[in-house]
Amino acid sequence: MADYGSVIGWATLSVSGLLLGALLGLSGWFGHGTIARVTALGAGLVLAAASVELAAEAVATHPWSGIAALMGGAATFSAVNAWLAARGARDRKRCAQCLAGPTATVAPTSGAAITIGTAIDAVPEALVLGVTLHSVGVQPALIAAIAVGNLPEAMSASSGMLSTGRSRQWILALWGSVAAATVGLTAAGYATSSLLSEEAVLLLQAFGAGTLLSLVAETMLPEAAEESPKFGGLIAAAGFGLLLLIAELA
């Protein structure tokens, strides 16, 4: 079990990908192909973290309630994401080229919806990290998955928001606020875990895994698959395998 100082430190490391990704996305150095491939890598990492690091133990020890918690997490994220999509934040994680392409419906225009949607996307990983830091301790594989997964999300979203007229200052302020809130939520998840039973913690991890699976399916994979970049599936598999390797060696 970590202490609060290390919780803040690990949480800060996990959100570093958001800030770095925002800067890279705003730089204009990377086109859709690069962003899509990095997104595929991040998706593979997060999928492995959700299944191996979070859901597996809960389902192994509490099969029915574990699956129910997993599905509940997925349903919760999907419902919130659908609500946000109807209010102008459907494509909040798409890059500039994707928003200009034929598969885009309407560019994200609602500042409030984009802000809320971006913050909501960070909630599952923050709570999951806080819970696992208390119940299991430091899990390098999970922290790596979150940090690397955040990188392409912020790259793509920042590029897309800039193309729709958002200023660089607005975008950086958004990501800075999300990063700060994520660190706070991680600490809250850590504190909450001390009040829960072992079974409740496992089910909360399964719930978090469900939200992460929905997040990957609804916000990362569409970006990774846009225009079918070459070797996207292989890169996602490499991310999945990398997470397993980190978990084994840690």
UniProtKB/TrEMBL annotation:
Coiled-coil ranges (or none): none
Keyword Transmembrane: yes
Domain of life where this protein originates: Bacteria
Residue intervals passing through the bilayer: 6-26, 38-60, 66-86, 98-120, 170-190, 202-219, 231-249
Swiss-Prot/TrEMBL keywords: Membrane, Transmembrane, Transmembrane helix
Protein name, UniProt field: ZIP family zinc transporter
